[in-house]
TrEMBL record:
PROSITE patterns: PROKAR_LIPOPROTEIN. It comes from Leeuwenhoekiella blandensis (strain CECT 7118 / CCUG 51940 / KCTC 22103 / MED217) (Flavobacterium sp. (strain MED217)). This is Lipocalin-like domain-containing protein. Residues 29-119 form the Lipocalin-like domain. Pfam families: Lipocalin_4. Keywords: Signal. Residues 1-18 form the signal peptide. The keyword Membrane does not apply. InterPro entries: Lipocalin-like.
Amino acid sequence: MTKSGILLLLLLSLISCGKNDPEAQLKNLNGYWEIENVETPFGKDRAYKFNERIDYIEIQDSTGFRTKVLPRIDGTFVNSDTQEQVTARIIDDSLRLQYRTPFDSWTETVLEANDEKLSVKNDRGMIYSYKKFEKINITD
């Protein structure tokens, strides 16, 4: 094998390992996330052009919560009265988010989580893709 072939294989393996590192993904979960689209296994995908509410995730030491918030024009948020309790676990080299409410419990697998994008897949095969929310800035 040539030097360029070995270099290419090494580069590809480094890129693929970094993308799915559950520890790195966990560090990127906290913050405000705006849904972009949902892919269903049934072919009924949905794109979101405008979101009235966004998700806020806060996880410390593998436990935390997710809640919906309403962004306001002054840069603040109105919190909803509901929170989903979240436990983050690394299982089979994947980051799993286990949610719990008084009415239900479910698990999502994190496919991607970085500074700008979040993508999770639930038990029904639906993939939710988010982008980092940017506050409205009316002072500029």
